[in-house]
Write a structure and sequence with these properties.
The structure holds 2 protein chains of 2 kinds. By secondary structure, chain A is an alpha/beta fold. Helix content of chain A is 42%, strand content 13%. Chain A is built from 16 helices and 14 strands. Chain A has a 5-stranded mixed β-sheet, with helices on one face. Chain A has a 5-stranded mixed β-sheet with strand order 9-8-12-14-13, sandwiched between helices. In chain A, strands 1-2 form a two-stranded parallel sheet. Chain B is α/β, with parallel strands linked by helices. Among the domains of chain B are: 221 residues, no CATH class; 61 residues. A 6-stranded parallel β-sheet of chain B has the order 3-4-5-6-7-8. In chain B, strands 1-2 form a two-stranded antiparallel sheet. In chain B, strands 9-10 form a two-stranded parallel sheet. Chain B is globular. The chains are: A alpha/beta, B alpha/beta. The interface between A and B is large, with 89 and 94 residues. Chain B: One of its GO terms (molecular function) is metal ion binding. Chain B: Its cofactor is [4Fe-4S] cluster. Chain B: InterPro entries: Aldolase_TIM, DNA_rSAM_put, Elp3/MiaA/NifB-like_rSAM, Endo/Exo/Phosphatase_dom_1, rSAM, rSAM_sf, RuvA_2-like.
Chain lengths: 476, 409
């Protein structure tokens, strides 16, 4: 029987060192009685194996997750955690996949202990309350008293170092004092009593606590589940809890009984808004305002906003795409998403000035299906395209372009009434329903979606050629 | 009137802020101050430093800069026509309170909101100055700024550069309700502002020509809040709006706030106890949409009046209505089927998937992993367990519904 006694400070490092030596010597878990220095020695005390005794193993093998797990087991106050960590260490030598099996009773128990240690750490991070105790060399000094459930002073210290780097502080627990002074952390094994102290800020803090509480939503059990009573004596705000609970129902009822009061007299905000404009002689801003209010088909429901066309009223070329995409829907401007950016590059290559053209879409609202948080584009159906033709026709009438460029089948359908056979019709000049010359080409998003690089390169060349042709048609 | 002390102001301006549900301090960049040159750190999921008797976490100093307001929103305690006393913090007072609270480990940071004074831009700029001063003073904790939708894009950009999270409240689930109860607010303008936040964040995420990033814009993203129970909107309206918001603006969270009676209330609103259970069910449904791959139409249908079942949670309600999809065999079923089992959360499902490789699991094994067996047992097959007749029983639903408790008097 072995009875290692570990120091209170540096417990984990000492446990790891000792456990390695015992395990190398193949000492079974049942023959080790783990404890802290000062604990009663075991009845079957025997000297620790010093150095390699009967070394039967080479290196001990553990999965990476064992380091974290054992770190979370050692601080457990009853000592069961240290014992269990050694049991698992020995079992892992024969069963390397052990830790992934949460159905194993010992693994489950270890995870439970680790969980309670994590909770204890978390509660210490949350419930330590510093009080200001003076100043030294330009650094403000604070001190706190805290009673953790387990021996977590060491693993918790780094959190406070990282958070309160520009001040000196001490956290005193019944067994250990954690001190951070001039950016140096030290831990001392000192027995301490709960001090009597005060901080004027606590009055402000309790004021805040009392006022942020909504008496109409009283749920004391939910509070106690997260802030158990054992922590209350060291939380300045907890002194208010009984009164807040007792008065809650009455306060809430009083608000309901008081009912409405006479509105305060004084400044009122001017609530007159101009009446919505309807059918004035068409200018582009008027037309766009009307498009914004469109409810001609159900697409306006899910979309963020209608996206009207953009460009000068006297543009000679009108470019018609399919519909706004995810980005256009948010920005409210056409051709700003990935496909629009590609189109700009191609137009640039062809020498076509997009700023001088009027760009718009056959359908003015974004049609999509939502998958989780993502919005996936959907092609508009014939009914939606037809409903939106009303706007496209008015844009055509207002801008009165010399040439129309249709990008893709939806635009072609909207402008001619038939979008079939796009690839065959590409590059040809047709007529719109109201008799304007219409050049047919592919939609840039088609280029983005083509998986085969060779096919994509060819399609891109074709579109660039069409854009050059558009320029040619305009100049002659 | 005598000059107000900072304590008087704090009492008023925190009381006025408590109707905002959000107190999260999670999901921002990792920061610390171990270099000794500043104060504060952030952790992955944030810390709740206290809990109020309403069961809600207190993580941030949640205050208004001022409760003066030129707007007249019926549901709001600070509307211009309300008789509540008014106060206003200076920039320096908010900075001082935040840092002194933080040094004592009371809070994770600041959640600043405000009534509108003078103009939207003026108010927003004062709030931005508070955040900028905190950062200039070396504060590395969490900052959440409520953004005023009408504020100029430059101010919103400045806000996002010092704050971790921005939020703009949509206030009520439908545009019609916003127009009815918050006459000066424009629902389209609110959405437009959320869109601007999303686009600015995306722009900042892109690298410049030199491969450098321009800085971090609202690293913890944006969120919003809807008030539940003040208007006639049903749960289908509410979840439909939320789903749309998640999709369009990449929101981190939509908060649902049960409308609760306020002092000096407006005559147009119901002064009853807040619908807390309804709020709870909405959060559960929201989780199913975001983490469990449920579609909106699976959670809520117009059949039951567009409302969620208050007696059982939405996942259980779905399982009871779709019994042909059960029982699910815990030892063979695919992940997406396990996620549909009432009583199994995402973590439990992960644990089942990794543990069952070591041998067939019994109900007891799953209980040890943290699964809620009382709910799950009727819907799963496990080693030595089949739900048998239970699953088809007409009284299955009754097993999960607690008998009504008598009202305490």
């Amino acid at each position: 029987m072995y009875a290692p006694r570990l120091p209170r400070i540096g417990t984990y490092a000492a446990w790891r060192e000792t456990a390695r030596r015992l395990a190398r010597a193949d000492v079974p878990a049942a023959q080790v009685d783990w404890g802290l220095a000062g604990d009663d020695a075991s009845m079957f005390d025997a000297p620790l194996p010093i150095g390699p005794l009967s070394v039967e193993r080479g290196d001990l093998k553990v999965p990476a997750s064992f380091a974290d797990l054992s770190r979370s087991l050692i601080p457990e106050r009853s000592g069961k955690g240290m014992t269990l960590a050694y049991v698992l260490l020995m079992r892992l030598q024969a069963e390397p996949g052990l830790l992934s099996n949460r159905a194993d009773a010992q693994v489950a128990q270890a995870r439970d202990i680790a969980k309670s240690i994590h909770r204890d750490l978390h509660k210490m991070h949350a419930f330590v309350r510093f009080r200001e105790v003076g100043q030294a060399d330009g650094r403000r000094r604070f001190a706190a008293w805290f009673e953790p459930t387990h021996r977590i002073e060491e693993p918790t210290a780094d959190f406070f170092v990282n958070r309160f780097g520009d001040m000196d502080w001490a956290i005193v627990t019944p067994e250990v004092t954690i001190r951070y002074q001039d950016r140096t952390l030290t831990l001392h094994e000192i027995e301490s009593q709960r001090p009597d102290a005060d901080d004027p800020l606590e009055q402000l803090w309790t004021t805040y606590y009392a006022n942020i509480f909504n008496p109409a939503r009283l749920k004391p059990d939910a509070m106690r589940a997260e802030m158990p009573k054992k922590y209350w004596k060291n939380l300045p705000e907890a002194a208010l809890i009984p009164d807040l609970i007792a008065g809650a129902r009455a306060r809430s009822q009083a608000m309901q009984d008081a009912a409405a009061t006479t509105p305060r007299q004084g400044r009122r905000v001017d609530q007159t808004t101009p009446a919505p404009m309807i059918h004035r002689p068409v200018s582009l801003p008027t037309l766009h305002a009307e498009i914004h209010d469109c409810t001609r088909c159900p697409l306006h429901g899910p979309a963020t906003q209608a996206v009207p066309g953009e460009g000068p009223r006297d543009a000679r070329l009108m470019i018609v795409g399919e519909q706004p995409g995810d980005r256009e829907d948010i920005e409210g401007r056409p051709f700003t998403g990935p496909a629009g950016q590609l189109f700009d590059r191609l137009a640039d290559d062809a020498g076509l000035d997009r700023q001088a053209s009027y760009v718009t879409n056959a359908v003015k609202h974004f049609k999509f299906v939502q998958r989780g948080k993502r919005r996936i584009h959907q092609t508009p159906n014939a009914g939606e395209v037809n409903a939106c033709r009303w706007w496209l026709d008015r844009e055509l009438a207002t801008v009165d372009p010399e040439l129309v460029l249709a990008l893709g089948a939806t635009a072609l359908h909207a402008l001619t009434g038939d979008g079939r056979g796009l690839l065959k019709r590409r590059g040809g000049v047709e007529r719109t329903k109201d008799g304007r010359p219409l050049l047919v080409t592919l939609h840039p998003s088609y280029l983005l979606r083509l998986p085969d690089p060779a096919a994509r390169a060819e399609a891109t060349r074709n579109v660039t050629a069409d854009l050059t042709k558009a320029l040619h048609l305009l100049n002659n | 009137m005598a000059k107000m002390t900072i304590q008087d102001k704090l009492a008023l301006l925190s009381d006025a802020a408590k109707y905002d549900a959000s107190c999260a301090s999670s999901g921002t960049t990792k920061r610390g101050s171990r270099d000794g040159k500043g104060l504060g750190s952030t952790t992955g999921s944030g810390i709740c430093h206290a809990y109020a008797p309403d069961g809600r976490c207190i993580s941030l100093l949640k205050i208004l800069m001022t409760n003066y307001c030129v707007y007249d929103c019926a549901y709001c305690i600070n509307r211009v026509s309300s008789n509540v006393p008014r106060a206003r913090f200076t920039v320096e007072e908010v900075v001082w309170l935040t840092i002194e609270f933080y040094r004592r480990n009371y809070i994770e940071g600041l959640f600043l909101s405000s009534g509108i004074v003078k103009s939207s831009d003026y108010t927003m700029e004062e709030m931005v100055r508070i955040a900028e001063k905190l950062r200039a003073d070396g504060f590395r904790g969490y900052i959440h700024l409520k953004t005023i939708p009408e504020a100029s894009p430059e101010l919103i950009e400045r806000a996002g550069l010092s704050a971790d999270r921005l939020s703009i409240n949509v206030e009520l689930p439908t545009d019609a309700s916003v127009r009815a109860y918050a006459p000066e607010k424009d629902p389209a303008g609110i959405r437009d502002a959320m869109g601007k936040v999303r686009l600015t964040k995306e722009d900042y995420a892109e690298k410049s020509f030199t491969g450098r990033r321009r800085g971090k814009f609202a690293p913890a993203g944006q969120s919003t809040q809807m008030i539940v129970g003040a208007d006639a909107a049903d749960d289908a309206d509410i979840l439909g709006t939320a789903n749309k918001l998640y999709g369009a603006y990449g929101l981190k969270r939509v908060y649902y706030s049960a409308f609760s009676p306020i002092p000096d209330a407006s005559a147009v609103l119901p002064l009853v106890d807040p619908p807390l259970m309804r709020e709870h069910r909405l959060y559960q449904a929201d989780w199913l949409l975001r983490f469990y791959d449920f579609g909106l139409d699976e959670i809520i249908t117009r059949d039951n009046g567009g409302m969620l079942d208050l007696d059982v949670d939405p996942k259980l309600a779905w399982a009871l209505a779709n019994r042909d999809r059960f029982p699910v065999d815990v030892n063979r079923a695919a992940k997406e089927d396990l996620l549909r089992v009432p009583g199994f959360g995402t973590k439990i499902v992960q644990r089942i998937l990794s543990s069952r490789r070591n041998g067939a699991l019994a109900l007891e094994d799953i209980r040890r992993m943290g699964g809620r067996i009382k709910q799950a047992s009727s819907f799963v097959v496990a080693r030595g367990h089949t739900p048998g007749q239970m699953l088809d029983g007409a009284n299955l639903r009754a097993r999960f519904v607690k008998p009504q408790q008598m009202e305490l008097f």
